[in-house]
Sequence to fold (185 residues):
Amino acid sequence: MARTPSNMIPLGTKAPDFELINTVSDDMMSLTDLKDEKGTVIFFICNHCPFVIHVNDELVKIANDYGSKGISFVAISSNDVENYPQDAPYLMKKLANDVGYPFPYLYDETQEVAKAYDAACTPDIYVFDKDLKLVYRGQLDDSRPGNGVAITGKDLRNALDCLLLGKENNALQKPSIGCNIKWKG
Fold:
């Protein structure tokens, strides 16, 4: 497993707009359609990455815990499906249904969205406020496949709690670690 850290783009960065296909509903969805009144969380994930598989259940729990509080969640896969066919859109739909994703799972075929967000790994997590300004980027928590640390989602949960309470997140924001995004040749 390659261990690629996320690029820690500056806090306050405005979320780049996008319009991508939701592999579950086959609808085109834009950031404008998906943003919520208090915040928006964007996960760059994929089907096959062991780091994503390791945290999938916690991503679902967090989305279920915070989705009713004015925060929306969006997952995007930007991997090259020609060389990584297990990340193909029809398999994204199957995984989303099997795992019970309560959020859209979008396919970034051109990889332009991943580039616009400077995404580097899976999972790569971004939290934006109501004005789509970046307030958190980095890891879910300190758990990684095989390290024995319990999955709690504490870093992301803290960022979301701070956002909901309108207070500054003073916790250290650590990069996520995961598989690199599989860029096209």
Q: What stands out?
A: The first helix runs from residue 31 to 34.
